[in-house]
Design brief:
Helices cover 28% and strands 33% of the residues. It is of the alpha/beta class and 246 residues long. 34% of the residues are buried. It binds S-adenosylmethionine (SAM).
Length: 246
């Protein structure tokens, strides 16, 4: 029997221990390249307040923290925050919602496709406004998002995998209502657990427009974590910009 784990919003259910199991390769080694890129480009000062929005377990936070930067992380998933805290008790991470960011920051990061989760565009745009309000004038915003064009030409519609603990997983991907949908089924004994990921397919231009509306001017874009120039074939859309000084 197949059970959809969630009846409500997918993003309130999917980011649990099964997410950690499936994305175990999204680890510190994977995060390190982007952290290095951010440091090289933005050149944060040690006294700057950095916020990792939707930080998950805090893998990027840990790398910044180890280098002596003041970084905080917030995430909606109590499970991921708890897990990050158990592994690294000195990390400044906590449960929080990207729609209601507290305090003011010099730099806000949105890493590894942590945006575009709401069906309505206006709800996603409201996240950008929330980010803008939480930035000091002249503050930096860095977003690492998917590239819809790359996805459309590289989509793997269906694949099976076996996780390190032997769990069998099936992933199905398709496009629906200008979103990429991934249905993930964890095969268990007697019953299966089914989750969904659903992310809006915002293009580089869409993101830049949203940022501008919220008073954040895009400076440049990269196409991957090595800092390659962005093109329509790039695997990622990484944009960074600054909040205009009022
Ligand atoms: C793809 S994961 C990326 C996590 C982390 N940035 C990383 O690179 O490991 C997306 C994260 O967004 C979080 N999230 C989803 N909706 C959120 C919201 N409204 N506010 C804050 N975090 C949210 C999820 O719990 C999840 O940890």
């Amino acid at each position: 029997m197949d059970n959809y784990i969630h009846r409500g919003n997918w993003y309130e259910y999917w980011f649990d221990n099964n997410y950690l199991k499936l994305y175990h390769h999204r680890n510190l080694k994977d995060a390190d390249e982007q952290v290095q890129l951010i440091i090289n480009i933005i050149k944060p000062e040690k006294h700057h307040s950095i916020l990792d929005l939707a930080c998950g377990e805090g893998r990027h936070c840990l790398l910044f923290h180890k280098k002596g930067y003041q970084i905080k992380g917030i995430d909606l998933s109590a499970t991921l925050i708890r897990s990050g805290k158990v592994k690294h008790p000195d990390l400044d991470i906590g449960v929080g919602d990207m729609r209601h960011i507290k305090g003011k920051h010099d730099i806000i990061l949105s890493l590894f496709t942590s945006f575009g989760y709401f069906d309505k565009d206006r709800d996603n745009i409201s996240v950008i406004f929330s980010i803008s309000r939480a930035l000091h004038p002249g503050g930096w915003f860095w977003i690492d998002f998917l590239n819809p064009e790359y996805l459309k030409s590289n989509l793997v519609p269906d694949n099976d995998l076996i996780l390190a603990d032997g769990t069998k997983v099936n992933e199905k991907r398709f496009f629906e209502n200008n979103s990429i949908v991934k249905v993930i089924t964890f095969h268990g004994q007697g019953s299966n657990k089914k989750y969904q990921e659903r992310v809006k397919l915002y293009t580089k231009k869409d993101l830049e427009k949203m940022l501008l509306r919220a008073g954040i001017h895009s400076i440049d874009a990269f196409g991957d974590y090595k800092g390659e120039e962005w093109s329509s074939c790039s695997p990622r859309t990484i944009i960074y910009g600054r909040k205009t000084c009022e």
